[in-house]
Amino acid sequence: MKAIARVAVLMGSDSDLPVMEKAEEVLRSFEVGCLSAVASAHRTPQYLRSLIARAERKGVRVFIAGAGGAAHLAGVVASETLLPVIGVPLGSKLSGLDSLLSTVQMPRGIPVATVAIDNAANAALLAVQILSLSDKALAARYEKYRRDLTRSVIAKAKARRSR
Amino acid sequence: MKAIARVAVLMGSDSDLPVMEKAEEVLRSFEVGCLSAVASAHRTPQYLRSLIARAERKGVRVFIAGAGGAAHLAGVVASETLLPVIGVPLGSKLSGLDSLLSTVQMPRGIPVATVAIDNAANAALLAVQILSLSDKALAARYEKYRRDLTRSVIAKAKARRSR
Amino acid sequence: MKAIARVAVLMGSDSDLPVMEKAEEVLRSFEVGCLSAVASAHRTPQYLRSLIARAERKGVRVFIAGAGGAAHLAGVVASETLLPVIGVPLGSKLSGLDSLLSTVQMPRGIPVATVAIDNAANAALLAVQILSLSDKALAARYEKYRRDLTRSVIAKAKARRSR
Amino acid sequence: MKAIARVAVLMGSDSDLPVMEKAEEVLRSFEVGCLSAVASAHRTPQYLRSLIARAERKGVRVFIAGAGGAAHLAGVVASETLLPVIGVPLGSKLSGLDSLLSTVQMPRGIPVATVAIDNAANAALLAVQILSLSDKALAARYEKYRRDLTRSVIAKAKARRSR
Amino acid sequence: MKAIARVAVLMGSDSDLPVMEKAEEVLRSFEVGCLSAVASAHRTPQYLRSLIARAERKGVRVFIAGAGGAAHLAGVVASETLLPVIGVPLGSKLSGLDSLLSTVQMPRGIPVATVAIDNAANAALLAVQILSLSDKALAARYEKYRRDLTRSVIAKAKARRSR
Amino acid sequence: MKAIARVAVLMGSDSDLPVMEKAEEVLRSFEVGCLSAVASAHRTPQYLRSLIARAERKGVRVFIAGAGGAAHLAGVVASETLLPVIGVPLGSKLSGLDSLLSTVQMPRGIPVATVAIDNAANAALLAVQILSLSDKALAARYEKYRRDLTRSVIAKAKARRSR
Amino acid sequence: MKAIARVAVLMGSDSDLPVMEKAEEVLRSFEVGCLSAVASAHRTPQYLRSLIARAERKGVRVFIAGAGGAAHLAGVVASETLLPVIGVPLGSKLSGLDSLLSTVQMPRGIPVATVAIDNAANAALLAVQILSLSDKALAARYEKYRRDLTRSVIAKAKARRSR
Amino acid sequence: MKAIARVAVLMGSDSDLPVMEKAEEVLRSFEVGCLSAVASAHRTPQYLRSLIARAERKGVRVFIAGAGGAAHLAGVVASETLLPVIGVPLGSKLSGLDSLLSTVQMPRGIPVATVAIDNAANAALLAVQILSLSDKALAARYEKYRRDLTRSVIAKAKARRSR
Known about the structure:
Oligomer: homooctamer
Radius of gyration of chain A: 17 Å
Order of helices and strands of chain A: EHEHEHEHEHH
Largest interface: A-B, 38 and 38 residues
CATH class of chain A: Alpha Beta
Distance between the termini of chain A: 45 Å
Low-confidence stretches of chain A: none
Shape of chain A: globular
Structural class of chain A: alpha/beta
């Protein structure tokens, strides 16, 4: 149900979808409503601003923005909202190094919470951690996720050892 | 009053203090209680874990961790807590490139919200944004901060123009 | 006389002034009117947009934008105007590599004409070349500049040889 | 019609053609006459100079030069003409980082307007922006291009949302 | 026979197995008992610590740890043991540069003996060199290995020459 | 007493002494006899080989080699001995990145145990860890060192907290 | 005829052959006798030295050495001969950046004439240029090669234009 | 005596003199006549060509060219002469990485013999090695230089040991 979206997943181009939909999948698995949209900081600046405003009205509390190259999307979103913004640097001709530096090296005053190159899943998990601070049910689901993550790594490790 | 610390500011070495105390100053200016500690992921792993546990008991909701070189501090903190962790890559012999990559390139499951090299102030502002989601008074202070930031840049710009 | 400014020199912070005023000096030496302003893509996005609009109304034909780190200024200006935008990546903790990549790696549709790190003089010279296409007097001054540049290098070279 | 070419698209080797012909396509779509030629700064320096002179006589107002590796083509063209020169760094064994630095880091006096790695389309768009300053019909076509670009991104975004 | 394992080969994820099993192969060819395990510094920190303790009890004298991205595994192992730790930086989206810097740039007090990117075989050979200091039979096998290595390179070289 | 040197500390040039003597200091503090020598892989290859042979005759069990730029010293030592070789990449015009890559990226068969840029102290500590495997008294001193290291970090941390 | 080899083409591993045989082809096309050999600076140092000595006795005047990763081959050859040594950095996991820096950043006293990554053909052409200084027939062949190179680029360019 | 100059030392700007005059000093110490000149590939292309032609007429057999940033000087010289060209990448805002890549990554057909960043002395020594191939007296002086180099390193090493 989009109506109660708490996270907005934005990306600079629809070619970014295969990477960024990992964020949506993770959010869905945590039952965190999200809206997702393609909006370029450079090609559709005005539309992007209206999207941000609409997202805030719909109840969005955290933004996730993925972009590659001179990746300004997360920074531009951060400059237009007071909410936390998580940046996902996307792979590029320079292996994402340009995307990473363009996303993370923000000036004093306007931070972007940057995660690893192409790691949209971690952006969603960070959003979950942030929302969990004021949502005990979500916090419980996240705690279970981490416990399961640990268990599955150990189970695989043990299965391997007993071969 | 440290008793109600909501943010823990950790750093890998006391030589990191001049950079990391900017985070404390910002938090103080927002009236966000914080505790700060030196704890090395490599030299004092057990002490670090006890610090994290104690911080959580004291009410900390967000961790900030600054380290340089093979900067594992933020990642190790993130592996020991369910709370959001903000990483500050610190300058180094390689200008902080090693610190940045060691902090941001976390594997799926355990994100670190990375800010710009040496930008401890932005780490604190990101913590403020996160805490503001469930603290209206703080949200108001942050809104004022952003308004003032905008105004001061514009004021300086206008002063310059009218020379 | 600002009234007939043909080039706008923008910079992200007043700490960028010592580098960016080289652009103003060069433009002045070519008798090209310019306006210069501090406006941050991130801290004052709305003010920046109003500045761009006002600059266009005042007759600006070319924008020069200098910024460092996650240097979005030139890209944001380019997304808000149809005029040519010249980007100057400014030195940074990473020697300007982040500024360069953030400025030059623009996506299809919105180019930024990027010059060398900290080379605000060249940004101004490029603006002069562009304006010279429809201003014969300026073209003549630029031709003279290049002739003088060549001569002064050769003169110095010869002076040295005859030592 | 080559006779009224306003842009010359030069490239260092015919293996660069698949990338550089994007520039020709864009120029053609804007009805900007262009001539295109292979000419190596290193293998055919004299031929390159004669090409530049002939291009100027034919009415060329802007040069676009694409090259990879130790990419000197744009810089050499810039040293032989007073017209604006746009450089396209081409992909290489080092992902185009060498091409980018060789193209953009020009010394004071001789700028090259550098665009993103392999982004020949943006080089053409920049040429269009420059020529539009003194060609109202072209300016109108460019304005329409930008409007269409914005619309198509938004249309795709909306189509996606209504799925 | 795992019971007398002298080397522990750890890796951060089972996707690292194809690279890291080269270490096991080399150790086996030297008749050096080893145990191998998947254990993530970030996803299973407690399990990793118990693994390290158990490995020490089983007689392990040298640790080999391979990880990619923000590769903290070797550093975390080094912080939990007094034994020598050899780090293998694994290939990544950034070609292993992030893994290399995260592994090698350790702070004073806690070294990690880092080998080349993806070169698990060399990690094993380094372990063999270390263990050879107090095991004459192993030292003899290593000496033979080096002699054979030299011979096989020369044999191939000569075969080629006489073609 | 040089006669029972167990570690040889080699460096490519006497300008490397200020960094490399940290290794000697650490070794001395652990009562590990060492010999130190300047020997360039490139300028004195034959002398270097005779040094290595003499060092082995004197009882050296571990080599430490520090060099900068195209830092071949550690690799050349590793090719001439069967003993473990620890490489220290030294700072350079490229901040030690060239030294690091030249030292660590060794081919299969001939590993170099590389430590952080300029971190000669860690090279010595790694040598101590290696020698401790067959020297209980040294192992005890190293255990004490690590305990003291942990304590001193915690003591400083606590002192700071109680301010 | 190997007997009058004037250039020795060395490579670190037989996997380097597909790249390095380009050097042999170029030398053959200039009728410059060459010998080629696989010899690792690290795995067969003594054999390498005997190869260098034998090559000198056979009349070799220029060495070409290609290697990847921690590419010490050219430097080691340069340290063992008084003749000019040309280094070819070979592609690697780090795209040849490590090979390039390991080859070119030689210390004062022992230069290596480094050519582009994987450009064995240029190494051969440089050898031809060097040998041409005292061989008029070869100089004439090289002059013809350059003339033909220029012509073929221009011919292709003209063919394209007249399409 | 300039009349019998065998090496031409060119540099892109007179600010390069402090580095490049090391080449002249070395050549002088080997009694190799040289001429030195400032000539920019970009600012004085025609003058540069006339300089090259004049140098050849004066008997120059080897060119040395030092430049920084988008360092095209060596490549441009190489495209205008059939003689061997040695490139010296000069330090820059990017520590000389841009200069190095611009100098070394030459395309097939036109090699530049590149030495280490700022290492003008090695450029001169390489020129001496090349000229020595057809000048026995010079070869003898170079052999003595190398012997002395070795001796002085060993003497310093021994002096240190006997302290």
